[in-house]
Write a structure and sequence with these properties.
The protein has 401 residues and is of the alpha/beta class. It is 18% helix and 43% strand. It has three helices and 28 strands. The strands form three sheets. It has a 20-stranded mixed sheet that branches. A hairpin with a 2-residue loop joins strand 1 (68-73) and strand 2 (76-84). The protein is elongated and about 115 Å long. The protein starts with a helix and ends with a strand.
């Protein structure tokens, strides 16, 4: 009995010793894990702080490229470099943290923020007309002034304004399905057309003082002439304007057809009162509709100093696929208060100083003109037509840790 008790005590003692050792090992490993987690979290936070400091500086001053060198932070240091990406307008930010002898880096790719990202951008004259019942906008929208609505228009993307909102009608109930915010300012650039003129003169197509008539063809070619009855010439789009920029100065552009490829047409007015307008004569669409085929590579920018006018072709429906930019005017509909009622569908966006009415605003049999269906091209969130005007800020394209 005595010997059995001794063996039993020895057994329990051995079990307790092994258990204590295991508990000690577990405690040690837990402590090491906690230390590693703290160190990893600390070095990550330091690198992230450097990245955030740099992005904020770029947001405040778009051409800031100074970076940081060995800035003390939270027990470590961070250094940041800001460098252009060769062959693009993008910049790369690399934030490197040093903590307790270890290094950790975050790489961020930024791209200039393009006005093509907006389904609608309206300038100071945007309050001259109201978005009304039956109007729909399906992407991001900004008004650099006051937004006016009548009845129940629908805004699917986020809407921002500089100076607020005026609602009217019965019921005065616009639908902001993507949210609404006021007090936001995003002005147009002042050098967009001088930049485009330089690009068109070096690898694009440019003519001065003579109107240009364009018909895009679904095989990647186009027809062009310089007067309504002039000689028609056919060319490959990529040969006609290798860099995609087609510009007229002190003249107008008349356009229609099916676009295969990428291009921006520019109606400039460098001096005087002549030109600077674009007239869309008939449907202007892509060979591959991005609403059906999101991988479509067809993309068009319409950039004008003055108005972009939808001509009266007698149809009750009109289709335009493009991001349209009017620095000093807007998109107008010819005979919009007298032509038969119908729908104008824009797939892309409208960036316009002034918002013009597209109909007479009546209902029922008295209705004349077009309801506007503005359908956002989702590709413009990360891509845009060639050399489309940009804002003064950058957007994060990727953030790699």
């Amino acid at each position: 009995m005595g010997r059995s008790s001794i063996f039993l005590v020895m057994g329990f003692t051995l079990v307790f010793l092994m258990t204590g050792r295991n508990l000690s090992n577990v405690s040690t490993e837990a402590f090491k894990t906690a230390i590693n987690y703290y160190e990893n979290t600390s070095i990550h936070n330091i690198a992230e702080a450097g990245a955030n400091f740099a992005c904020n500086q770029i947001f405040l001053v778009g051409n800031w490229r100074t970076g940081y060198s060995n800035i003390p932070f939270a027990g470590g240091t961070f250094s940041v470099t800001v460098t252009p990406v060769s062959g693009t307008k993008n910049i790369q930010v690399v934030s490197t943290a040093i903590y307790d002898g270890s290094n950790y880096s975050i790489k961020i790719l930024l791209q200039p923020s393009s006005f093509a990202k907006f389904a609608f951008w309206g300038g100071s004259g945007a309050a001259a007309a109201a978005w009304e019942t039956g109007d729909t906008v399906t992407g991001p929208m900004h008004v650099e002034g006051t937004l006016k609505t009548y009845g129940q228009p629908v805004f699917q993307g986020k809407v921002t304004t500089k100076t607020g909102l005026i609602k009217s009608g019965s019921p005065a109930k616009p639908y902001f399905n993507g949210g609404y915010e006021t007090g936001v300012s995003i002005p147009l650039p002042t050098t967009a057309f001088s930049t485009l003129d330089s690009i068109a003169s070096n690898g694009g197509y440019k003519q001065v003082g003579t109107d240009l008539y364009l018909t895009f063809l679904p095989n990647g070619r186009l027809l062009w002439k310089t007067s309504p009855t002039g000689t028609v010439t056919e060319a490959e789009l990529t040969a006609f304007a290798p860099n995609g920029i087609i510009e007229v100065d002190k003249a107008n552009i008349y356009v229609q057809g099916t676009v295969k490829g990428r291009a921006s047409i520019v109606a400039n007015k460098s001096s005087g009162t002549v030109g600077g307008k674009v007239f869309v004569e008939n449907d202007l669409v892509y060979s591959a509709d991005p609403r059906i085929d999101p991988s479509s590579t067809d993309m068009l920018g319409i950039i004008s100093k003055g108005d972009i006018q939808i001509m009266d072709n007698g149809a009750t429906s009109f289709n335009v696929m493009a991001s349209m930019y009017s620095e000093g005017g807007g998109m107008s509909v010819k005979n919009g208060t007298s032509r038969p009622a119908g729908t104008l569908t824009v797939v892309g966006g409208m960036i316009v100083k002034n918002l013009y009415a597209t109909s007479n605003g009546a209902s029922g049999a008295l209705r004349k003109g077009y309801n506007l269906s503005l359908q956002y091209d989702q590709r413009f969130l990360t891509d845009n037509p060639p050399e489309f005007p940009t804002t003064s800020s950058y957007e994060i394209l990727s953030w790699l840790e």
